[in-house]
Amino acid sequence: RKEVEQDPGPFNVPEGATVAFNCTYSNSASQSFFWYRQDCRKEPKLLMSVYSSGNEDGRFTAQLNRASQYISLLIRDSKLSDSATYLCVVSSGGGADGLTFGKGTHLIIQP
Amino acid sequence: NAGVTQTPKFQVLKTGQSMTLQCAQDMNHEYMSWYRQDPGMGLRLIHYSVGAGITDQGEVPNGYNVSRSTTEDFPLRLLSAAPSQTSVYFCASTPPGQGPYEQYFGPGTRLTVT
Questions:
Q1: CA distance A7 to A10
Q2: What whole-number distance in Å separates Cα of residue B34 and Cα of residue B50?
Q3: In this structure, are residues B89 and B21 in contact, taking their beta carbons and an 8 Å threshold?
């Protein structure tokens, strides 16, 4: 089984701080990478795709390291509303059966 | 657009009962999927469909059936409920041309089997 590993946390971080967490994947043939956000008792929502060159969306930066087989998510100037579980998703191509979801990293932003 | 809708939101079944979880989307998405989410586990794919009349099995299909008679609807049927099927079930759809990547999830159905 293809594996996607995440530190489950929780990461307790003060408001305004910068926080980063990684996700490692076992399948070297993986092609596409994503971060989803899931609020408590809600559905997952796409946060951002992760490109080889890295990408940024406001306070969020995603990086891919193919050599070491991990992706990262950096959140700057964290807000209380960033409290959620962040799911790493890796695709090895094909259809939905090519997607592997990590178990998620739980982030708690404290006032 | 209502997006992806799921009914019911909550359901309690007795072992051996059958039921259908409903999923509908009004975005004209061809690609739809069913997942289950259990504590300490990632989302696991049950069944998926690339269009009306076409379905395929995912990672954990046993005990579930699906059909796709229209683009809009993708119901999931539990044949004979078992306690191991206690879970949160999410339906998802994907815009055309996006592959399975950008998934729009419904709000989920929380199922308990006693």
A1: 8
A2: 12
A3: yes
CA distance B27 to chain A (A): 16
Residue bearing tokens 């992760």: A50
In order along its 114 residues, chain B shows pLDDT tens digits of 789 999 999 999 999 999 999 999 999 998 899 999 998 888 999 999 989 999 999 999 999 999 999 999 999 999 999 999 999 999 999 887 665 567 899 999 999 999
Distance CA A61, CA A51 (A): 11
**What pairs with residue A46 in β-bridges?**
A36
**Closest chain A residue by Cα to residue B45:** A97
User: B-chain residues within 8 Å CB-CB of A34?
Assistant: 101-102
Tokens of A36: 């989803």
Residue B58: predicted pLDDT: 92
